[in-house]
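Hello forum,

I keep getting stuck at the same step: I have a sequence, I want structure tokens, and every attempt I make locally crashes halfway through. Rather than fight my setup again tonight, could one of you with a working pipeline run this one for me? It's a single chain of 194 residues.
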Amino acid sequence: MNASTPPSTTYRPTSTNRRTGRNCTKSRRPLDHTIADSTKLGAAHFRGFADAGRKLADIHLNYESAEPYAGIVETPASPGETPPSELYRVSTGKMRFPSRNGERDKTTIIYNNRVTLSNIPEEAYRYQLGSRSAIEWIIDRYYVKTDKPSGIVNDPNDWSDDPRYIIDLLKRIVTVSLETMKIVDGLPLLDILE
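Reply #2:
Ran it on my machine without issues. Output:
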């Protein structure tokens, strides 16, 4: 931008094709949506975003030390009869949601054929990694699978000596997801110009 450009207007940069030397952009027209003049946002808005970024970085970098979400109820099929190393073991079948009236009940996860997790807050599914929630990402990745060409077995049960590692990780991800959305929902509003 130059001195004659209004502060609330952002222009697409021009670029040149290295091979032909021709301009690749059709014109230097304004973007359809722009953010209002940053000087109007002020230091308070900047501080709000900076603090939120710091908190988000902290909880995401330290997700393995987050407190497992205490509201989740574990229901073992036969408590006391199965050793923890077997009770919390994931298998070749993925964790899944039960169906109720033809719809998936995301407040409950069938962890394996011995343990069911319930009382998972639906709010935790708002935090998305691409097109799915962090919880669904864990469900999709944490199961025993064998690579067909090599025969190598990828067993997440072997990733830790703690038999509760995966189930507690899932509960930690619920905590991180809820905290993330609380921080994001608390961000200052941006004035987007049409």
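The longest strand covers residues 73-76. If your local run keeps crashing, start a new thread with the error log.
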